[in-house]
Amino acid sequence: QVQLVESGGGLVQPGGSLRLSCVGSGFTFGLYAMSWYRQTPGKERELVASINPSGDWKNYADSVKGRFTVSRDNAKSTVTLQMNALKPEDTAIYYCKTMYKDTWGQGTQVTVSS
């Protein structure tokens, strides 16, 4: 059974930081690119960041460049999104996704508010 489990979301003040993690199981994690997406009510899911299987290629949405960093630890089947200098417009449910069978995690809520 392929599964992705996100954690690390929560409430943070503007300018603060959060670190999201996503642990994969049921597939060979290190063979597949991983991505983080986010979604707010009434809007389509937006690609935030992607990382290739070896971790030496990364891509970011313009809205998060310079603030977010994606990384992975294939030995731990984990992909991480470090989010700094958070803004209220970063508020969303964040999902991780693997290219293996286009599998999604259940999402974790991030709320940026004072």
Describe the protein's architecture and organization.
With 114 residues, this protein is mainly β. It is 0% helix and 50% strand. Strands 2, 4, 5, 6, 9, 10 and 11 form a 7-stranded mixed beta sheet that branches. It has a 4-stranded antiparallel beta sheet with strand order 1-3-8-7, with no helix packed on it. The relative contact order is 0.33.
Summing up helix and strand content along with how strands pair, one would put the structural category as: mainly beta
Residue stretches low in confidence (pLDDT < 50, at least 5 long) are none
* Helix share, percent: under 10%
**Cα Rg:** 13 Å
Number of helices: 0
Mean pLDDT across the residues is 97
**SS strand fraction:** over 45%
Shape: globular
> Count the strands?
11
Euclidean distance between termini CA atoms: 40 Å
Pattern of helices and strands: EEEEEEEEEEE
Largest sheet: 7 strands, mixed
Ordered list of secondary-structure elements with their pairings:
Layout: E1 3-7, E2 10-12, E3 18-25, E4 34-39, E5 46-51, E6 58-60, E7 68-73, E8 78-83, E9 92-98, E10 103-104, E11 108-112
Parallel strand pairs: 2-11
Antiparallel strand pairs: 1-3, 3-8, 4-5, 4-9, 5-6, 7-8, 9-10, 9-11
